[in-house]
Structure formats: structure tokens, C-alpha cells
């Protein structure tokens, strides 16, 4: 991962992953293990793929890795929606907003990269 400049999506993905780790710990304390595990995997995968894309071998490889990150972000949003709509589940609206923002940023990066 390149450390020579600030990268908005890398920074947001890492910050989001850290928030999700704390969030899923609360879910686990409430014995919501299945959702917590699924959410932790998909959400932290966003950052892993974004970081991997920073060292892509080509523009096509970069776009591919960002598309994977986008798919993981969409899956994460799905798990968050389930938490929001299920009785007895802790929900944090800011995490949902962060997921929405990451999806928008990834979509913009993908569409801009395809045109360039």
C-alpha cells in the first residue's frame, strides 16, 4: 500500500473497519453471533480490497479490485439493514451512513477509472 499521499477511500475503509470491529463486538455481547460474523467479514473485506487495489498491476486490475470492494460494501449494507429492521439488534445509524458514503465513493472511483 502506498503511503506517500493521503487517500480518502483507504482512510475511510480503514476507519470503517475499525468501527465495524467495535460494532460486531457489541452484537456478540448480545449473542448475535451469526450476523456479527457475516458483517465483520464483509465490512473488513472492503478495506482489504481497497488497499490491495492500491498496488494493482493494471487499470483493469484496479477496477476489478474496487468492484469487489463495492460488492462487499453492498453486502455489508445488507447485514446492517437486517440489524436495523430486526427486533433485539443493536443498530448504529452512523455506521449505516458510513457504509452508504463508502458505496458512493467506490461507485465514483469505478466509473471515473473506466473513463480514464
Automatic annotation (TrEMBL):
Name of a matching Pfam family: 23S_rRNA_IVP
InterPro entries (alphabetical): 23S_rRNA-intervening_sequence (IPR012657), 23S_rRNA_IVS_sf (IPR036583)
NCBIfam families: four helix bundle protein (TIGR02436)
Annotated protein name in UniProt: Four helix bundle protein
Taxonomy of the source species: Bacteria, Pseudomonadati, Bacteroidota, Chitinophagia, Chitinophagales
Amino acid at each position: 500500500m502506498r503511503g506517500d499521499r493521503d487517500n480518502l477511500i483507504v482512510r475511510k475503509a480503514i476507519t470503517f473497519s475499525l468501527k465495524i470491529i467495535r460494532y460486531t463486538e457489541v452484537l456478540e455481547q448480545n449473542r448475535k453471533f451469526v450476523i456479527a460474523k457475516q458483517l465483520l467479514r464483509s465490512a473488513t473485506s472492503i478495506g482489504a480490497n481497497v488497499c490491495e487495489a492500491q498496488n494493482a498491476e493494471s487499470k483493469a486490475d484496479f477496477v476489478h479490485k474496487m468492484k469487489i470492494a463495492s460488492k462487499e460494501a453492498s453486502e455489508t449494507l445488507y447485514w446492517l439493514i437486517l440489524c436495523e429492521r430486526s427486533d433485539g439488534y443493536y443498530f448504529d445509524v452512523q455506521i449505516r451512513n458510513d457504509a452508504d458514503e463508502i458505496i458512493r465513493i467506490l461507485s465514483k472511483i469505478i466509473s471515473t477509472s473506466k473513463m480514464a
